[in-house]
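Predict the holo structure. Ligand: beta-D-glucopyranose.
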Amino acid sequence: MRKVAVGIAVACGVAAAAAAAVVVHRRMKKAGKWVKAMEMVKDFEEKCATPLSRLRQVSDAMIVEMQAGLASEGGSKLKMLISYVDSLPTGKEKGLFYALDLGGTNFRVLRLVLGGKGRGIINQQFVEVSIPTSLMTGSSSDELFDFIVAKLAKFVAQEGPDFKPSPCRQRELGFTFSFPVVQTSIASGTLLKWTKGFSINETVGRDVVEELTKAMERHGLDMRVSAMVNDAVGTLAGGRYANNDVVAAVILGTGSNAAYVERADAILKWHGPLPRSGEMVSCSSLIPISEHSIASTSFLWKNRVANGISLKVINMEWGNFKSAHLPLSEYDLELDAESLNPGDQIFEKVMSGMYLGEIVRRVLSWMAKEAAFFGDTVPPKLKVPFILGTPAISAMHQDTSPDLKVVASHIKDIFEITNTSLKIRRVIVQICSIVATRGARLSAAGILSILRNMGCDTITEGEERRTAIAMDGGLYEHYTEYRKCLVNCLNELLGKEVFESVVLELSNDGSGIGAAILAASHSKYIGCYD
Ligand code: BGC
């Protein structure tokens, strides 16, 4: 009997020891995985680092590309497209105008009634429509434009009698088309390529105004396109309508881009007639007196009169900027390689709204795979591209609750991961912060490049200059931490004194409003509004 008892006791002891060993082993394994996960985060953070020295290198490289893009067609990854906006709005525009703002998964139809000198916008109405994904890729050009025009026609059909154009004119439309387009006039332009998840091959190489006009004819819609602009150019025009100090515009939304006012004689690739002089001013009416060079970033602008200088609005297409100085991680490279446009839009892919959430998802997905960050198996939803949108990372990044419950609920709702510990949620916030910080600081470096190119990055003693940049896009508008980080970084880059002369002005729906105003300033019917 005693022997049996001893045997059982020994057996129990062995089993307990074995169980304890399993627990210890599991803990060690878990600790090892956690260490591995933390190493991955640290490595990612280092690869995304944007110290000021690096941002200055990025800015130098961008200025070189800007100059190359202005010198010759195809001379640079930065297309530096010349817009045909030769005169920015003056505030005297008057009458009924429409805009169609197409640039992402949603488009807007907008109607403005402009009151003329000193009266501004006296009536404004819009509708927003989302585009079915099936029409963004794989469909035909006609199908996409038919869908858009049907909504535009419906909007017009529902208008009351107050919004009928004068008998002497057709309805006029400003078309904001936020993709790279080479223009040959204010109301025509050939699509170079799609970006931001659109991919309809047959539209590439076609005049998109013609595509839109043909669809309007198919729908019997009596309307003409008076101006076609990129959203960055539209935002610049809309910004200038509201504030005369606006000399540039930046879009931080689904995609990203910038436009600014450039001296026509600095655009070496421009062989057409120079636009009317002195109608647009750059850097608050200052006139450049010497050529820009990188060595002397200050390209001096003097005299407060804009006599004799012709200026043009340049659509930079800065989303396509690429440089060895950009801080890129393996996750960015993987995202690019698997995107619809590999090798293109690299700047955009590290800082715009379409991609920030996707970068975070890729990091988490690798951590799940390599370091069992969410347990022994990789949660299936974590493998779905673009399932994590930037609004979600903005909400998680800005979660101020002590137990990070916003993070917990997003991770549960989006990835169906229910059991995240506080420790894990903190790491998720950290990853969101790394991605957003890099994007915001790179945007600041882009803005610095424009200011340097225009000579607005220095200020002489006693000079009272204001340089305003119109900002549009949901990322800038809604992601507060991103916006704050961008502004702080610009302050660091410019120094307090110059920074105080620069105003970043949120221009809500500036691109649509700007296009309608440009339709007014480029109207065929000037003089027949009343
Ligand atoms: C397009 C630009 C556009 C920007 C912001 C980019 O993907 O190439 O033309 O201005 O997105 O919408």
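The first strand starts at residue 81 and ends at 82. The longest helix spans residues 2-47.
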